[in-house]
Amino acid sequence: MDRGEYxxxxxxxxxxxxxxxxxxxxxxxxxxxxxxLSYIAGIRGxxxxxxNFVTLPVAYRSFxxxxxxxxxxxxxxxNGEFDNGIVYQVGAFYFNETQDRESGxxxxxxxxxxxxxxxxxxxxxxxxxxxxxxxxxxxDVLTAVGGIRYTDNERSAxxxxxxxxxxxxxxxxxxxxxxxxxxxxxxxxxxxxxxGSQDDRVTWLAGLNYEPNPDTLxxxxxxxxxxxxxFDSVGTYxxxxxxxxxxxxxxxxxxxxxxxxxxxxxxxDYSGLQxxxxxxxxxxxxxxxxxxxxIWDQEADFVAxxxxxxxxxxxxxxLSAEYDELFAQFNVFTVSGTGDDIxxxxxxxxxxxxxxxxxxxxxxxxxxxxxxxxxxxxxTFDLGNSGSLTAGVSTTFKSSYFTDFYNYSDGEQGS
Length: 415
Known about the structure:
This protein is mainly beta. The chain has a single domain (3-413), classed as Maltoporin, Chain A (Beta Barrel). 1% of the residues lie in helices and 67% in strands. It contains 1 helix and 23 strands. It has one helix spanning 172-176; strands at residues 18-32, 35-48, 52-56, 60-81, 87-107, 114-137, 142-162, 190-213, 216-227, 230-231, 236-237, 240-253, 259-271, 273-280, 284-290, 292-307, 310-325, 330-336, 339-345, 371-382, 388-398, 401-402, 412-413. The strands form 5 sheets. It has a 15-stranded antiparallel sheet that branches. Strands 10-11 form a two-stranded antiparallel ribbon. The protein has a two-stranded antiparallel ribbon with strand order 14-15. The longest helix is centred in the middle third of the chain and has 5 residues, at 172-176.
């Protein structure tokens, strides 16, 4: 269906206003070519207007009454190059983020409407790591690269959940007084969750760079990746880890070096890949760990200097991203004597009900188009003493992809 034919939301257009500020800085002192000490820091703040809301057809409104976040990061690093060609860096990194959010999902039924859900989120995240990397020449054309990093993550939160669909009818004043900010201390059916997660991991990389001449570089490396676990309004989820294998080459050719070709391929072996989905507006977003996922890619970039002022570029990427194991859940409607109800299949107690979580193995990971092809042409016009003017044209093709792990047709974005 043409999006221009969509019915407009019954509550009119939404409103989003926010402010972001950031301060960043870097201070370096070079003791010698073999030792440079650097300090890199940044602080960022975000604040959304308390009247923000998003409308959804036909008449839903999602309100954000408070959304504030502040992050800061600090890195201290020592790096340099010795006379024998060894390049190194060692350092430490610290990150901290606080988030305060209050939101509600509103439906205009009855005299003034009702909140289907109402959430408060107070979250703090902290990450500390130390790292080191070294490049060692093995002769004139071969270089070995190695690195290691230790990361410690810790998160804590207080989740406040207010829903009218608790053990009894919704409070007529608290939930039917219209889309105004509520008082969590007085809200009916309030649940308070004190949540937390902590995990640490050592990751590493090892690789070889082969450079037989200044116009050719061949490389291969193996590295591990780590993303900390966490929690949502339903429960906790585990960290995700990845072993990545990469090979590739970079080539410059032509009489004047006017052609460049970069090729590469990678193979990612994920364990515990984190996938998110919104199953129920009265619960909020949920995150599941895929037991395993395999992602591999082949890519090539080509750049040609057709004339000193005209450059053509072309890139082609092929991606395969598939879940090997993902036990999650989906909503189904069941009819009972009391009317229609929604069940999250797979979330039932296996000791009392013989229902097994469906396995979405074989499905494609979301936002993973199989093909992405881009081409562009730029030309620079020399304007003499007035400078220059560059004009360009480009085109990009993406094959179809899914927006969630269910891979249903209504969640497919056309090419």
